[in-house]
Every structure is written in C-alpha cells, then in structure tokens.
Write a structure and sequence with these properties.
single chain, mainly alpha, two-stranded antiparallel sheet, 63% helix, globular
Length: 234
C-alpha cells in the first residue's frame, strides 16, 4: 500500500493534518508533491535512505493526527498494519543516529498530540511499541544531548495528556523521582517544557494523581527557602 503526499494535502483541507508536510526542516513546503511514502518505508525503515525514513514517519504521524484520522488509518491498515508501524516507531526511537531519533520522537509527539478517539485505542497503539518503551523514553530524557532531551520532553508532553499514559508512567520506576527533581533540566527551554508537563498534570485532574503527589508537584514551583545560617557563613 502506498500513500501519495498529494492525497495527504487533500486530508489537510479536511482538517485531518496538524500542518502541511515538509520533506525536511528549512525546506519549502510541498503539499502537492508526488513522492510516494509506502508503508514498507515505515515498517522497514532501516532499509531506506535517511531522508525517506524521516519522511515516512512524519507522514504517518501527520496522517493519523486527529482522532478521526486515527480511526480511518486503522481501517486502512488493519490491526496488524498499525501494530507493525508502531513497532517500527519503537525500534527507530530506541536506536540509530541521534538526529534521526530526534526526528522520530517529534513524529511520535505529533501522533499522540491529539486524539479524541477512545483512550483504549491510543493505549493499544502505544503498547505496540513494546513494554520497554516507557523506560526508553525516561532514559532518553536524561541523556546529555539537548536536542534529544527536548524531543523526549515534547513527547512526554503529548503522551501525558492522555489517561493511559499517566497511568503507565506513574508506575514506571524512577519516573516520579525524575519528574519532581528540579535539577534535571538546567537549560531554560528544557526547564520550561518540564514545568509545563507538571502544570498539565495538575490541571488534568486525574484521579491517578493522589493528594500527596499533587502536593509534591505543586511544591516543584516553590523556590527553596534560604538557610540563614548558610547565608551568614557566605
């Protein structure tokens, strides 16, 4: 099966896509391009050239941006087709060149950014990426590579807007410790992104976040009190 980017531009006019596709950052938009993006370029991403690999995952994320589009893609590919695509997503994010992993994380962030479909469908799509994926994402957000960390933070921001992901990550070892640690993101942009994630969780009102954790999350935004004895020594 193949998807024409020309068909994708038609979906854009119907509100299915987040934004017009670009072959790469900095390049002009080509909404009417006639480049093929076959399903095999996603499921066999390791066999295609890097730019086509990026385009394939970006296209998948754009096509399935909205809840209605996810339902349509599921009908088009079937359960096994979606499973293979999400397994490829998981594999591409878990290994490979750094710059490609950043791009695939951004595509994953787009894929889960919206979705008014049932949470069970989103949970199933995420589960197709494999049981290690929560730990993989937590590992990536702690790597000493700013672009990779930011891409992982954007992915967390998208995922944690859904109840299934809140449940998964709260149960992931070390996630809460990382979330509540204000020292993990010394860069301003990354720190702001992480703070926005916590604000989003607080605003979510999820019953999965108990009163104790909610207090700790609010305390994240309270500046630590200065010790007067230490100040006198200084």
């Amino acid at each position: 099966m193949a998807l024409l980017l020309g068909e994708i531009s038609g979906r854009l006019s119907q509100g299915y896509l987040a934004r017009p596709l670009m072959v790469d950052r900095g390049m002009k938009r080509k909404p009417n391009a006639t480049v093929y993006c076959p399903e095999t370029q996603v499921t066999h991403f390791d066999l295609v050239e890097a730019s086509q690999r990026v385009l394939a995952f970006d296209t998948l994320a754009q096509v399935a941006y909205s809840g209605a589009a996810k339902q349509e893609l599921l009908t088009l590919l079937g359960d096994q087709g979606v499973r293979r695509a999400m397994q490829a997503f998981g594999a591409s994010i878990s290994s490979g060149p750094l710059e490609l992993r950043v791009r695939h994380l951004d595509a994953l962030s787009t894929l889960f950014e919206q979705g008014s479909c049932e949470d069970s469908m989103l949970a199933q799509w995420f589960s197709h990426m494999g049981p290690p994926m929560p730990a993989v994402l937590l590992s990536l957000v702690q790597k000493p590579f700013p672009d990779l960390r930011m891409a992982a933070l954007r992915t967390f921001s998208s995922l944690l807007s859904h109840p299934f992901a809140i449940q998964i990550f709260l149960a992931t070892p070390s996630f809460v410790d990382w979330l509540l640690d204000p020292s993990t993101e010394p860069e301003w942009e990354a720190g702001r992104q992480k703070a926005d994630i916590i604000r989003g969780l607080l605003a979510n009102g999820s019953p999965l976040i108990d009163a104790e954790l909610r207090l700790k999350m609010r305390a994240y935004f309270v500046a630590p009190k200065k010790d007067p004895h230490v100040e006198m020594m200084l």
